[in-house]
Sequence to fold (386 residues):
Amino acid sequence: MLTYHTAIIGAGASGLFCAGSFATPKIIIDHNKIPGVKVGISGGGKCNFSNISVTAADYQSQSKHFCKNALAAFKPQDFITLLERAGIAYEQRAHGQLFAKNAQDIVQFLVYRAKTQNTDFALKTEVLDIQKKDEEFIVRTSAGTIQARHVVLACGGLSYPALGASSFGIKIARQFELNVIEQRPALCGLSVPKELRPICKMLVGNSTLAQVSTGKHTFTEQLLFTHEGFSGPAVLPVSLFWSEGEKVRINFLPDIEALSWFYKQKNTSKKMSTLLPFTGKIGAVLLGQLDKPLSNATKTDLEQASRHLNAFEFIPAGTAGYTKAEVTAGGIDTREINPSTFEVKKVSGLFVTGELLDVTGRLGGYNLHWAWSSAYCTAQKLIKKI
Ligand SMILES: Cc1cc2nc3c(=O)[nH]c(=O)nc-3n(C[C@H](O)[C@H](O)[C@H](O)COP(=O)(O)OP(=O)(O)OC[C@H]3O[C@@H](n4cnc5c(N)ncnc54)[C@H](O)[C@@H]3O)c2cc1C
Fold:
């Protein structure tokens, strides 16, 4: 049986970063053929690896303060410094988002760093089971059994099963009797009820600036019409805060108060939609039968049309699901985890990093930053456990 100081389950963002952050001999195991698959396609192939400003308020979790230690221990500038030393090009975009020129540069950097820090790679290897016997973990894989003093669960959430996501981490959490916060797809589109589908279908592929809200959370960005409903940067963050049965409100004209806009032009015989600053047929489709020549429109018509444009409300039928969700919200309850070391409080030697934890960042590089910060803290503890 192979014996290691540490076995890291998952060669994704947090597993690779953890492996490269301490030099003790270790193995990293992944059922994918290549490491860092999700990182490689993240940020549309450019990897939004962090954000210039990262605070606990950028994360959603049952324990609001849990992430503070890790975010203070490993900051965006720390990752930037590593990239600069490695000569990897990056750029800052709107809202402080930090992108690589090419996501593959980040993958190569993570893999190289791990290899130079005494890491053996076991790829195309599924981890089937983990048991703890006295002070050792017995890790059963599709390629044999490994014994390790420490195990890092870096096996991510349920999003994008095609890229290797699995429920393995949650299975192990339950086996060790850790509390799990219910998981759900997040940072994804929202599907509309049947009666609104025709509108979305007619506008598939079109996008417009919109203000989208749920509860106290509002985002003003581009909204994209899809076959199932709405997506795009204005909708993805809303999905993080939306819970089933809650209303979502859309202001399709965030810069215009539609009623006064119509009144200013009341004498024209042009249809309402032709006077609105939408591109293509968006205005006409959104207004549908409400779209009348302004001079014929009654006060009620104008009020109805304005409400439709400035305060469109609906209850989503659901989210676009794990196949399209950038992240999984929920996960292992952080109250089970030491916030400085990421060790499971009641299972010494077992660590959890990244998306598997109930810590979910908003859109803009926060989830990868969480992967780095949580992995860094884990590695700092493992360095000391020799
Ligand atoms: C399309 C897409 C784009 C994204 N873009 C961004 C972005 O630009 N910026 C950002 O901040 N976040 C982005 N994210 C989110 C970010 O990629 C994740 O939050 C991050 O990768 C989580 O890191 P992790 O280490 O927890 O898990 P992962 O990176 O998902 O790694 C988990 C690994 O565990 C492996 N695994 C699972 N089960 C087993 C098993 N039983 N045996 C062996 N191996 C197993 C998986 O194959 C996988 O490689 C994106 C996500 C997606 C899906």
The longest strand covers residues 144-153. The pocket of flavin-adenine dinucleotide is lined by residues 9-15, 29-32, 37-39, 41-43, 47-48, 126-127, 154-156, 159-160, 164, 166, 168, 326-327, 354-356, 365-368, 371 (CB under 6 Å). The domain at 190-319 is CATH 2.40.30.10 (Elongation Factor Tu (Ef-tu); domain 3). The radius of gyration is 24 Å.
